[in-house]
Give the backbone structure.
Amino acid sequence: MADNIFAPGFKTDPYWWDAAPRPKLELAPLPAESDVVIVGSGYTGTSSALTLARAGRKALILEAEDPGYGASSRNAGYVGRMLWHKFGPLERKLGPAAAAKLADDAVESHRYLTTLIEQEQIACGYVNCSRFIGARTQGHFDHFAEDLAMFARVGLNIQADMIPRSAQGKEIGSEKFYGGMLLHGTGSLHPGLYHLGLLDRARRSGAGIAAHARVTGIERGKDGKFTVHTERGNVRANDVIVATNAYSDKGVGWYRRRLVPVKLFQVATEPLSPQLLNRLMPGGRTLIDSLMNITWIRLSPDNTRLIIGGRTGVEEGGAKGKALKLHADASEIFPELADVKLTHSWEGQCAFSFDKLPHIGVHDGVNYAMGYCGVGLPMATWMGHRLGLKLLGKVEGATPFDGRRFPTRPFYNGEPWFLPAMMAYYDFKDRIELWRG
Ligand SMILES: Cc1cc2nc3c(=O)[nH]c(=O)nc-3n(C[C@H](O)[C@H](O)[C@H](O)COP(=O)(O)OP(=O)(O)OC[C@H]3O[C@@H](n4cnc5c(N)ncnc54)[C@H](O)[C@@H]3O)c2cc1C
């Protein structure tokens, strides 16, 4: 495919940073101490800072880069109500009652996020648009129908409809699907603006933030207080929260060894005509397909272009190489995109835990929450809030994820060397299933 898919001024920063540039903070000296130190300035860290600051505790966020540099300003902005772990296997592993509690908590995270956006008046383009999960094979469609029957049997608070192939034209302008599931109550937003709004509310409530203050170690003294070492000096704290998720580095090595950082890739198209957008996405839904290595496509929050993502986990010729591949994938779904140009191509990292579940807990006296497995926009906000409540000693900070072991694997050091092989296997399985139809 030709290089002429790149629009003039093509960028390799996230599209979201055009409207929500990362704040450039003055590098003032770090304070010698703070009541609470929070490591990481994404949704988890910022949400916990907001809750703590509103309750009068002095919270300082330490961020290795610019504020919100990680996944929280790079993601796709899909606001879901489900865990990444499929409910059937989770039920078999934990039993129906425990599995339902975890699944219900994901619904709760959605409720918390949408209420917060409304109460705080965060202008981030949230829309309750529903998600169309397009079945790429008849077998996938049948599985979705079984899942839906199971949700009803268990009584999960998930509302969805099966859309047969004959009726999918009102949801999606593509012949590539065998129908799909329409998940109601799910939405989308501008992730960068949402992050800036959250950060603004935390700072206005009294939370501090220091950028370019990478944490290199956390030490607990005999008096129970912590010394947080950074590249710009040390800060003493009564409590520490680690909220570094997929960007966890050696300075927070215990967490890094428990997470598999996976790269996700996205591109933005040039502005498209309203007529074309209406033909491709007539229902205005967010779209994901049913393959193991999924492709996702959504409208930008201002409804002027498409954001396309997929080809997870492996590098393919840098930002431009990946853009070419994503362009080809999207053109297979929507042939009318073949001549459309791309303005942005960027990557971000999300963190998978070894048991495919989010984790919240305490290690060596340090509180943490992470491991959202690619669906952390509502869950990171919700977990961050509850980390704050826990430090405030509030019973509302309890979660059904409390007390779960945070597993790692022997000899795993946080380098996911096995990922290319794993993704190749998923791609192979996807190709076989597509071939079978
Ligand atoms: C491309 C992409 C698409 C996604 N799409 C969606 C979606 O549509 N819907 C959804 O629900 N979820 C999505 N996710 C997942 C979601 O974005 C994340 O789960 C969520 O943003 C995690 O927030 P966080 O605050 O825990 O971590 P992050 O936002 O990643 O923040 C962690 C921060 O910690 C900092 N840090 C790391 N180490 C240190 C250190 N030693 N010292 C100081 N700071 C440190 C990093 O610089 C980083 O800024 C997506 C993720 C990616 C990457």
Q: What stands out?
A: The first strand starts at residue 6 and ends at 11. The domain at 3-436 is CATH 3.50.50.60 (FAD/NAD(P)-binding domain).
